[in-house]
């Protein structure tokens, strides 16, 4: 399994060399997109990823730092298919998103741009309810509700963490969580990598929590101001607790598991 880290910043004002949260899993020749922060498709394209290989898009929650680049991602897929006179490898791109109203807003914007967003492919948007949301011969994606966006007990969850299984590897993506303890059950079976947000949590606390967990690699993403202020000092703290099993991710990073 290969990961492409496209954006690593939390919902701050623009930061040098960091865009908002997004990463891609490459599996079986397809690209599986997780969150879609600003500029994600630009970064992926300039890294050499073929946007016409996008199979599915998974959104953890619909805050702007996780969906701000969604419209442009789909617009760029359409643009490339017209410029190259080529078709996406799949005629249908499946979009898994907690709030369909957010997708309807993006769809309206897209339909008011050139050509009415007439495409040779379909975007099929589906709400996330938890459990296995996608599975084929290359990848399995399971969603777990979390408490980042507090909703009434009888309301559907609006924020999710993901477990991604492919090529014998398991990756957990925290999304944004109210408490890192919410991830206890998700990581209890072990994982090859945990992509953990620090936009709402301190690096030291995260490392102490992870120290005795069956997590092979702890990768920090969605950086808050602690890391943005001094990532080298934060990495020293993290590695002082966990050694080389932890890293602070940066934009345009490629990770082979």
Describe the structure.
This protein is of the alpha/beta class and 257 residues long. It has a single domain (2-256), classed as Metallo-beta-lactamase, Chain A (4-Layer Sandwich). The chain is 26% helix and 28% strand. It contains eight helices and 14 strands. The strands form two sheets. The chain has a seven-stranded mixed sheet. Strands 7-8-9-10-11-12-13 form a seven-stranded mixed sheet, with helices on one face. Helix 6 runs parallel beside helix 8 (231-242). The longest helix is centred in the first third of the chain and has 14 residues, at 70-83. The chain is globular, with a radius of gyration of 18 Å. The mean pLDDT is 95.
Describe how the helices and strands are arranged:
Elements: E1 2-7, E2 22-27, E3 30-34, H1 40-46, E4 54-58, H2 64-67, H3 70-83, E5 92-97, H4 100-111, E6 122-127, E7 131-135, E8 140-145, E9 160-166, E10 169-173, H5 184-187, E11 193-197, H6 203-210, E12 218-221, H7 225-229, H8 231-242, E13 246-248, E14 253-256
Parallel strand pairs: 3-4, 4-5, 5-6, 10-11, 11-12, 12-13
Antiparallel strand pairs: 1-2, 1-14, 2-3, 7-8, 8-9, 9-10
Helix pairs in contact: 6-8
Keywords for this entry:
257 residues; alpha/beta; Metallo-beta-lactamase, Chain A; seven-stranded mixed sheet; 8 helices
Compact description:
The chain is an alpha/beta fold and 257 residues long.
- The stretches of 5 or more residues where confidence is low (pLDDT under 50) are none
**For the record, what CATH class applies?**
Alpha Beta
What would the CATH topology be? Metallo-beta-lactamase, Chain A
Q: How many strand units?
A: 14
Provide a count of the helices: 8
Span between termini? 5 Å
> For the record, what is the CATH homologous superfamily label?
Ribonuclease Z/Hydroxyacylglutathione hydrolase-like
Oligomer: single chain
Global outline: globular
Strand and helix order? EEEHEHHEHEEEEEHEHEHHEE
**Percent of sequence in beta strands:** 25-35%
How does the major sheet shape up?
A: 7 strands, mixed
Helix percentage range: 25-40%
Overall mean pLDDT: 95
Rg for CA atoms: 18 Å
Strand order of the largest sheet: 6-5-4-3-2-1-14
Q: How many individual domains?
A: 1
Structural class designation:
alpha/beta
CATH architecture label: 4-Layer Sandwich
């Amino acid at each position: 399994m290969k990961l492409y880290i496209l954006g690593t910043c939390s919902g701050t004002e623009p930061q040098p060399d960091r865009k908002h949260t997004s990463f891609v899993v490459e599996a079986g020749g397809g690209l599986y997109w997780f969150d879609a922060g600003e500029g994600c498709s630009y970064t992926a394209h300039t890294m050499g990823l073929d946007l016409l290989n996008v199979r599915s898009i998974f959104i953890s929650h619909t805050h702007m730092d996780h969906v701000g680049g969604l419209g442009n991602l789909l617009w760029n897929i359409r643009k490339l298919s017209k410029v190259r006179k080529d078709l996406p490898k799949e005629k249908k791109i499946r979009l898994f998103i907690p709030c369909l109203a957010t997708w309807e807003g993006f769809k309206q914007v897209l339909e008011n741009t050139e050509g009415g967003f007439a495409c040779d492919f379909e975007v099929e948007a589906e709400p996330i309810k938890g459990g296995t949301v996608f599975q084929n011969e290359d990848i399995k994606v399971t969603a777990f509700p979390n408490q980042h966006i507090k909703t009434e007990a009888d309301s559907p969850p609006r924020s999710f963490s993901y477990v991604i299984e492919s090529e014998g590897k398991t990756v957990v993506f925290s999304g944004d969580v109210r408490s890192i303890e919410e991830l206890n059950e998700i990581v209890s079976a072990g994982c090859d990598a945990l992509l953990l947000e620090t936009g709402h949590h301190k690096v030291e606390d995260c490392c102490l929590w992870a120290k005795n967990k069956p997590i092979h690699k702890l990768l920090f993403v969605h950086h808050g101001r602690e890391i943005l202020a001094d990532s080298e000092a934060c990495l020293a703290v993290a590695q002082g607790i966990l050694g080389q099993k932890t890293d602070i991710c940066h934009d345009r990073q490629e990770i082979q598991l």
